[in-house]
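DATA SHEET
Item: assembly model
Revision: 1
Owner: S.N.
Input lines:
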Amino acid sequence: MAKSKFGEKFISFLEKLDSLDRRIIFLIIGLVVLIPLLVPLGLPIETTQLTEDAFYAIDALPQDAVVLLSFEYGPSTKPEIHPMAISVLRHLFSKGNKVIVMCLWPDGLFMANEALDLVARQEFGLEYGVDYVNLGYRPGNEAIIKGITKSFEANFSIDSKGVSISNIPIMNDIQTARDVDFIFSLSAGYPGAIEWVLYAGDPLQIPVSSGNTSIQVNQLLPYVKSGQMKGIIAGMPGAAEYETMVIRKIENNIGTITDRARELLPNFKERRNATKFMDAQSIAHLVIVLFIVLGNISFFVKRRKQRKY
Amino acid sequence: MYIGILGAWIAVFLTLSILSYLYEGNVFYKFAEHIFVGVSAAHWATIAFWNQVQPNLFGRLWPQAEVASLDGFQKFWYGIYHGLHVIFGKIFPEATFNGVLYRGIGDQPQNLSYLIAFVLGIFMLFRLIPKIGWLSRWSLAYVIGMAAGLRLYGYMSSDVIGQIHASMLPLWTGNIGSSINNIILIVGVLTGLFYFFFSVEHKGALKVVSRIGIYFLMVYFGASFGFAVMGRISLLIGRFNDLILYSGKEYGFATPILLVIMVVVLILTTRKGKSEEV
């Protein structure tokens, strides 16, 4: 008897779900995101094939390799992509690679400056213009990518600090995009990772990889499957995985690692930008799955009742 | 220090203003929305001008040169520059080193073919003058033609040919797992393509094939939705993280104070609106 009463109440609850005020759903989502941020659970991070492919493609680069890192995101997608930018820079500098930074989004300039200031200047203490350079932003989207396949100087006469690129030592041997060993696009949309594949990676046969927003993953997977991209770092979970892999590499002393990177390991472990957010992400996903399941049950219950009458 | 605190208060106020839309449309949301649009446009225009137009266009038309060494056409050309310097001194600077007067921007080699781009750029601005607005079509024609040509090549080579090539897979690879993967991929590509083939009515066996295509598309849409949710939650986490950061004493308790003020204002305005309706 009690069971059937409970069943009736449950069915009545499911029916009411259909007309639930959407603000209650927003509130629940807000709380399930907020609580794990205040009280971290420390859920484990497992790496996936996509992130591993991107990591090993970069890890396989020789110590004297020059990497072109393009910033195509702004504050609106910073929580997803900025941790990737920091992890990729830490990975590259911990191997002793040189990095050329450029931006196809105006906001990317600020993101690039922030990431370089933290990793290159504060953490690794590298020399601007010798170990890394920020060429800044240029409008023109894919025309800029196409342009640098012919000449950097024609498109970037000065860097982000206003210095002529002919006076920047790192650019001495870099005349075109053909002279870089790897392209990594930190991409939140157009222009972004796809344009790098289309106008630089494929025509010049330069390996391309990308760290991108979750929403772009489906668009980029065909390029990964076809080998046109060397893996991708997909959204915040990808960033957390990459962070974990960089720390594991230094911890287990795998491959080329500079002494400075070994010194910085405790700092890297402490400042895990993406990993600390993954608890909130996982719990929020569980709740959304629960909403979808309840919503579907509610739909079928309602339809069954309508058919009855 | 104070700039940092002020920045935190502005960030918190704008974040809460945008989030307040989840409750209902209100004055805070409208204010933040307008600020966002205005600041974004101004920011883009400023960055584009000082990073591209000034060094890459004006810098190539008038690279830095010693005024005393100019003669003939160059003297006339740099005379125009001087006229521009008088009006827009910051954009067209002149400088004196060791008593020698220099005009121009940067050390790029001079390239007067950039005049074409300059003129086309000016034509674009003629849209603001209805009588000669038609000239802007020439600039648009250049942009559209260039973009279409550039994209056609890229899409044909990487998207069409590259993806067709990547879809030509063996049905049996010697490994059961990868063979199943290949079969699923090929069936998905063929049935998905067939779903968009409208020259034949989808009946009988063809209906079954196109239906399989729909199922593949539904899986794609489902995955896209999942990734979209993941992305949005990530952005929410980012904003909440900042709100938590700025709720501390070092930022003057910006989050709790502004949250309380906004909630009170929203409640009062909602009540006022309801009483006016009555």
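QC remark: The longest helix of chain B spans residues 205-245.
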